Amino acid sequence: MARLELHPDRMLPADPGLRPLAREIYASVRELPIISPHGHVPAQWLAEDEPFTDPTSLLITPDHYVNRLLHANGVGLDALGVAQETFTPEQSREAFRTLCAHWTAYRGTPVRFWLESELADIFGLDLAPSAETADELYDAITAKLATPEFRPRALFERFGIDFLATTDDPCDDLAAHDALAADPSWTGQVAPTFRPDRYLEPARSDWNALVDRLGEVSRVDTGSYAGWVAAMESRRAYFKARGAVSSDHSHADARVEPLAEAEASRLYRLAREGRITCEEANTLRRHFMFTQARMAADDGLVMTMHPAVYRNHHPGTFDRFGADVGADIPMQVEFTRAVQPMLAAFGTSCYFQVVFFTIDETTYSRELAPLAGFYPSVFVGVPWWFIDAPDAMTRFRSAVTETVGFGRTSGFIDDTRAYLSIPARHDLSRRIDAGYLARLVGEHRLTLDEAVEAAEELVVGNPRKAFKL
Fold this sequence. Notes:
The protein is mostly helical.
């Protein structure tokens, strides 16, 4: 059986002149704490601290990076436990066998790096996944998960997580966050993130029901536009009181455009009556985004924007399995004109900050780096989602650094529902940045001391600055 051997220099430059430099830079940041200001791990896991039940529900089912490649190779999402109310131990084992049997599908992808790191670094296993080794791996992982060292809180400590943010609906009561705050045995820092997208899309068939619910939980009449604004402000305050540091926004485009109060009220009324057109709904949504920016300038929550994703690209998959299962596909996006009204109003405000993320790499050097190179409120979000991969991360540094330096980028964002992949994702980012910095040292553009200092800022300084931690 093939053994799983992780080379200590993996992802570092192959150039023999640069590799020793990269090793030294990477060693300086390898053990630094993890700051994760945008992710999707449920706070409930940490509040309840219940043992994880099986390898599949932890490593496969919640991880759409893993699932989408299996789906592309002919595996049904239901066979992986996605959106299944009941999933038997036999089905769980079979799903893990499927992953191992398709191990070659992950060659050359960051998913393989993450999974290998989880197996070797977290579980201490040296058996390479394959159809022949699946059951042995499954049993070994299951045995580990039954021990106290693999409960959620113990892993939180072991991973060295300094800050972890969840992503939450504005109407969520954040009970798990309250439970953690009230637990004297809990010393970690887990914060909610305000994610109002659904309430900003008047074209949605369920928008009126959502807005009714928003009014109910905020105890504000949302029958008028003024009521909607007051309800949003109330919920943002509720989140901030429970530790939130940011709001998260993802729409079809990046446009943020204000309307006159009377026009906003008129369109809102049409939406509540179910008579708004698609074009009018988009206009109102862009104004809603402007109001979110105004609120951010008032309450200090950092805005994160990651527009231009075609959500639920395959309707049949969405109908059967719901959202966030790997069927979201990137689109082109324009930022410069789209965000100008927002930055004209708030871009130099001392209380306003925004982090722009994209999956459209063409915007990095053309738009995002120049924006962050002028506006003190703007940070460029590092590669994530489809482009949190080695070559893409290197392209990012090359595209933005000469315009904006290192200090105006966000720090690594793992954006994951797969809890055990968090340290692997951050480790990959640290290795790639070490390699990029080593090249600058090799070209005598930085000294080694400067590169080490920059690496530490990328890991801990930048996310603290970008997210006001």
